[in-house]
């Protein structure tokens, strides 16, 4: 779930829900990024190119880049304010292996041709906010954008056997579907099957905090 940035408080440097320098902050990203960094470091190649989809505020990629310095990280986001936030975070906490953010709507067909090949592709908290068709497009394009032996990592909440597994997830999924009946949590096996149909080999899902999962799928050599 995407949380709003904290409001301005004494000595925080925030202005109007942002840092004064344009950085945005998502508390959910701050909470999960250390766990994600640890998990990604275990499956990432020692060197190569990493593509982050729907980078959001930029608070993930600055941690990933410092923890995995052998990878060149390419953040992307379709929203101009998010790309500006990424740029501001990189300026505040610089890493030489972060490329300038690029615009990318990962739910539109054809982007793999211009954003690949990548040795690692990471996506967090998007699939439940888009339709099944858009999610299928996103996962298929990710598979096409991977280099041989590359890995796709997808993080977020999922249904298990068609059901949510906590009261919080049930409430959040219901809110999404109330506003957008064609969206909502995707079933774990549906995502794994979609990756397999796109030519990837899914690993066993990895349990993460807050009842989320990290799904990793490998492209054959």
Structure keywords:
single chain; about 220 residues; alpha/beta; 7-stranded mixed sheet; two-stranded antiparallel ribbon; 9 strands; globular; disordered N terminus
Question: How would you describe this protein?
Answer:
α5 (132-145) packs across α7 (188-197). The chain is 35% helix and 19% strand. The protein is globular. The strands form two sheets. Strands 3, 4, 5, 6, 7, 8 and 9 form a seven-stranded mixed β-sheet that branches. The protein has a two-stranded antiparallel sheet with strand order 1-2. By secondary structure, the protein is an alpha/beta fold. A hairpin with a 5-residue loop joins β8 (206-207) and β9 (213-218).
Secondary-structure blueprint:
Elements: E1 14-15, E2 18-19, H1 27-43, E3 48-53, H2 61-67, E4 71-75, H3 80-92, H4 112-115, E5 118-124, H5 132-145, E6 146-156, H6 167-179, H7 188-197, E7 201-202, E8 206-207, E9 213-218
Parallel strand pairs: 3-4, 3-5, 5-6
Antiparallel strand pairs: 1-2, 6-9, 7-9, 8-9
Helix pairs in contact: 5-7
Question: Sheet bearing the most strands, described?
Answer: 7 strands, mixed
Report the helical percentage: 25-40%
Shape: globular
- Would you list the SSEs in sequence order as H and E? EEHEHEHHEHEHHEEE
Question: Which regions contain 5 or more consecutive residues with pLDDT less than 50?
Answer: 1-16
């Amino acid at each position: 779930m995407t949380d709003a940035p904290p409001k301005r408080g004494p000595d925080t440097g925030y202005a109007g829900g942002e840092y004064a320098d344009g950085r945005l902050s998502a508390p959910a990203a701050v909470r999960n990024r250390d766990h994600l960094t640890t998990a990604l470091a275990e499956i990432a190649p020692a060197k190569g190119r990493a593509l982050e989809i729907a980078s959001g505020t930029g608070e993930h990629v600055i941690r990933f880049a410092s923890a995995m310095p052998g990878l060149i990280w390419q953040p992307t986001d379709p929203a101009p304010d998010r790309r500006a936030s990424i740029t501001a975070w990189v300026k505040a906490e610089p890493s030489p292996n972060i490329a300038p953010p690029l615009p990318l709507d990962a739910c539109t067909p054809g982007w793999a041709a211009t954003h690949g090949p990548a040795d690692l592709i990471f996506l967090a908290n998007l699939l439940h906010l888009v339709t099944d068709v858009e999610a299928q497009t996103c996962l298929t394009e990710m598979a096409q954008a991977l280099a041989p032996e590359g890995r796709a990592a997808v993080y977020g909440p999922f249904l298990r056997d068609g059901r949510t597994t906590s009261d919080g997830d049930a409430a959040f999924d219901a809110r999404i579907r109330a506003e957008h009946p064609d969206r909502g949590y995707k079933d774990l096996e549906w995502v794994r099957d979609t990756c397999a149909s796109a030519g990837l080999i899914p690993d066993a899902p990895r349990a993460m905090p807050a009842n989320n999962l990290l799904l990793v799928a490998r492209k054959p050599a």
